[in-house]
Amino acid sequence: MDKLKAMQIFVKVVDKKSLTAAAQSSHLSVSMVGNYLKYLEDDLGTALVVRTTRNLSITDFGTYYYGVCLKVLAMVEESGAVASGFSGNPEGTLRLAAPRSFGVVALLPRLGEFYAQHPRIRVDVAVGDDIVDMTTADYDAAIRLGPLSDSNLVARPLRPYSVVLCASPDYLAGHPPPSTPEDLLQHQCIATYFDHKTVWNRLQTTWEFIGDGDVIHRVNVPFKMQVNDAQGVCALVLKGTGIALIPEILAQPWLQNGQLVRLLPDHRLPDRAMHLVYRKMDHMPSTLKALIKFLLDEFS
Predict the structure, then answer these.
(1) What is the pLDDT of residues 182-211, one digit of tens each?
(2) Which domains does the chain have, with CATH numbers?
(3) Any idea what DSSP says for residue 181?
(4) For the chain, percent helix, then strand, then coil, each to nearest 5?
(5) pTM: predicted TM-score of the whole model, two decimal places
């Protein structure tokens, strides 16, 4: 058997804490994963995991050997990356997670430029508003909105993610535009909510504005409706259904052609922090280095 492959499978078993999950992520059968583990244990002459019908635990030596495998696999990957780097053509596949609206509107349209620079690197992108767990999911990097929780990830700041308060000319034809944040209490407002537990749930139920002298106005708006997708909210506002906070990158084309109107221009809305995060590593593949450099050049 391929010992490096067996080490890769063992690392996945430890990370996933399950033979079944490791098999699914490796596109192998559970019995084949078991064969790889047995090969390593026979070769080493000691057990790496203890398996029962309900649980899987790592032996003390298995914990030590897991660290050895991480170092060996990183060195092997780095040697390949260095070799391809010498030829000027890093090669490999990366997985990147990004928030839905930012990913669709800003990130994906720019990836053509990345592919032009690095034709032998493939980037698989997952867009969605759930926060992926980088310690268990097979992602090389992620773009995250909002405050970051304490973790062992490297976080590189990107441009703040701005939102704007908008309505359509059709809506404003029947409703006088608000002149203060408190006027929103008399308007038809649409909220964006998210199914998962993030800071955005709190931010979306209370709208916050910053006026002259940095005075903060917090308005508990009685919403006409809530939608769990920013692009869906934008579509409703364009149809004259109400007023909403919309990501600026999403609203910008409609603001420029007059199909949306920016409201309360004398008040600022708090920016939302955005970061590029990835795991700490002693030997970073040249493919990931290239992607990180591109994203920082484009969005920092």
Answers:
(1) 999 999 999 887 665 555 545 566 888 998
(2) 3-85 (1.10.10.10), 89-160+273-299 (3.40.190.10), 163-262 (3.40.190.290)
(3) G
(4) 45, 25, 30
(5) 0.67
